[in-house]
């Protein structure tokens, strides 16, 4: 997709967001896919970056031990079952904010303990070792946990108020976007075409994901296509980012500031309209156009 847009790209992997931010600000990378919670924090701290596109959405599962729901009809499963329990989370990631905010709205904020781990692997291993009662996990740990007999109490994208919530977002230096908008627009056009590939070519998509995630094809397909209505979307989703900002303020993770200065759908609007103009009857592109009109008002 990138070559079709005349871009010579290289994928650089990072283990956590702070190193990625340092690489972006030092000019070692041009774009970063950052966690939405971290981006809100960075913007609140005054980093001169702009969210201009989307990446992952939803994708987290609240995983519990099977005995917690034994004998309880699935329609009665809720956070109430975790009163007095301990939930493992990976840092202040999207799944944590969703369930922390949900717990507060249900009056459970002081009834549930959240234990922060360095990464998803640590949280998953602690669940397996009975150090915690539940864990908020994403791929590949969500599907691995279910395959080993644990239960998905709920998926984060189905939590009230956070349906299809934002997760990783595409961000770059504000100055870079202003200096070279054509290149970043081309980057977004490639992401839009890649989204169409993801929606229309599931088998080929899973083969590509398997290059980076060591999970069997059947389980990976389930995690990618069955648990959530979608796990990726190139839209910057200004509404979703604003909702996440509100949740972070409400739960005390950040102080109030004007987040709108760090969010932009301008280049995405141009990129999407250019792609739609080439094939206006394509159902995937029409969906993205409707989504854009709804989420980037």
TrEMBL record:
<feature type="domain" description="SsuA/THI5-like">
    <location>
        <begin position="2"/>
        <end position="204"/>
    </location>
</feature>
<dbReference type="Pfam" id="PF09084">
    <property type="entry name" value="NMT1"/>
</dbReference>
<dbReference type="InterPro" id="IPR015168">
    <property type="entry name" value="SsuA/THI5"/>
</dbReference>
<protein>
    <submittedName>
        <fullName>NitT/TauT family transport system substrate-binding protein</fullName>
    </submittedName>
</protein>
């Amino acid at each position: 997709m990138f070559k079709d847009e005349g871009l010579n790209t290289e994928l650089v992997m990072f283990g956590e967001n702070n190193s990625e931010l340092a690489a972006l600000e030092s000019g070692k990378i041009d774009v970063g896919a950052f966690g939405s919670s971290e981006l809100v924090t960075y913007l609140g701290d005054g980093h001169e970056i702009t969210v201009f596109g989307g990446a992952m959405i939803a994708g987290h599962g609240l995983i519990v031990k099977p005995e917690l729901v034994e004998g309880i009809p699935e329609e009665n499963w809720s956070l109430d079952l975790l009163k007095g329990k301990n939930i493992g989370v990976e840092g202040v990631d999207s799944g944590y904010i969703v369930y922390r905010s949900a717990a507060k709205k249900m009056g459970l904020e002081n009834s549930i303990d959240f234990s922060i781990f360095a990464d998803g692997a640590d949280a998953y291993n602690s669940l397996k070792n009975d150090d915690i009662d539940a864990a908020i996990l994403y791929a590949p740990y969500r599907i691995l946990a279910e395959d080993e007999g644990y239960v998905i109490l709920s998926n984060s994208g189905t939590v009230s108020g956070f349906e299809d919530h934002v997760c990783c977002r595409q961000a770059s230096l504000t100055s870079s976007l202003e200096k070279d908008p054509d290149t970043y627009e081309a980057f977004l056009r490639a992401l839009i075409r890649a989204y169409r590939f993801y929606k229309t070519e599931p088998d080929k998509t899973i083969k590509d994901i398997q290059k980076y995630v060591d999970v069997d094809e059947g389980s990976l397909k389930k995690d990618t296509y069955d648990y959530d209505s979608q796990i990726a979307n190139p839209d910057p989703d200004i509404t979703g980012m604003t909702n996440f900002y509100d949740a972070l303020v409400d739960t005390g993770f950040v102080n109030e500031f004007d987040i709108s200065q760090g969010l932009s759908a301008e280049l995405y609007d141009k990129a999407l309209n250019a792609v739609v103009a080439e094939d206006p009857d394509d159902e995937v592109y029409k969906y993205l156009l409707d989504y854009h009109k709804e989420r980037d008002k």
